[in-house]
Amino acid sequence: MGSLLLPGPTQVPHKVLMAGAAPMVNHRGPEFKKMIDEMTQNVKKVFKTENDVLTITSSGTGGLETVVANFVNRGDKILVASIGNFGERFRDIAVQYGAEVQFLDFGWGNAADPAQIKAALDADTNHEIKAIFIQHNETSTAVLNPIKEVAEARGNHPALLIVDSVSGMGAADLCTDEWGLDVVVAASQKAFMAPPGVAFVSVNERAWKVAEANTNSKYYFDLLKYRKNLAKGQTPFTPAISTIYAVYESVKMLLEMDIDEVIAEHYFRRDMVRAAVRALGLELVASDDIASPAVTAIYAPEGIDPVKLRKLINERYHIVIAGGQGKFQEVAFRIGHLGYVEDMEILGAIAALEMALHELGHKFELGAGVGAAQKAIMAHRIK
Questions:
Q1: C-beta separation of 34 from 62 below 8 A
Q2: pTM, rounded to two decimals
Q3: Residue ranges of domains in the chain, CATH in brackets
């Protein structure tokens, strides 16, 4: 098996895989309580929060639906700031729950503009907007949003600030409490280095008051049930015990490495990939100032099908990279560099990309991308 360089699911360390293979335990018993209590405290350190963090057996999208279901009533007006596929997903979920959505579309490949968000909130003099929904890291375009600046732009407007950090948490800077983020969603299969199946939702006291007054019909995704059970060291329904075992181990690893150092490594890998891609004469989707540390999106050269390129890299060199999403499906491809990834895997992916591009007719100096990546590694690792 080769390298899995996707924006999720990501590669899982052997130690974490073995933790997930542990025998089942009683999810109402003391062993599970001890594990989930300790895991929750450690996850809170990754979130950089003292707020409640709830563990939900679901995908990241399940986490997104959870926050809509608990913090938005039917007929509520909300502001959705979108920069790609997952901003559109937030909008679509909210519409399903009967919300009135004010959709701020900043365009694929751009970051959200805090000034425009501030203008929309300033215009809302009657405070009809109940929540602001925004992505931390948009994987479809490989763009990182300026969440701290968006939080500052909210000012004294009472709307909740709800952040999708499914692909950003642990890969990019995010300070939940310091920045005043009311609700944040993350998931196990990204920078947490664990298998899919668990979402995390942090909720502050201001948001809990909104949830307590919420009138939506919901059962499985009712966060009040999760809060009640969290106090007992349980979940309201049977959880994905094996995945929780895995996350328990992976979060310990992240904290042992120091979460700020882990995030710094993600920024280094981003810069390494971008230097290599530029050396090959390829165009990047995101500009340097908004580039994601989790994934890099690259336009395919003119005349080269990105689907065929990815297939060649996979079948010949056993490296899996991601295709474009939505409107980028036929024009771009993506290299994930979040979670459990080594320098040499990135170097191998760049080498495979070079050979595949060369075979498909792209004109460049063979070895240029690898050389740029090598220089980045040596400058970073050799002091």
A1: no
A2: 0.97
A3: 14-257 (3.40.640.10), 259-381 (3.90.1150.10)
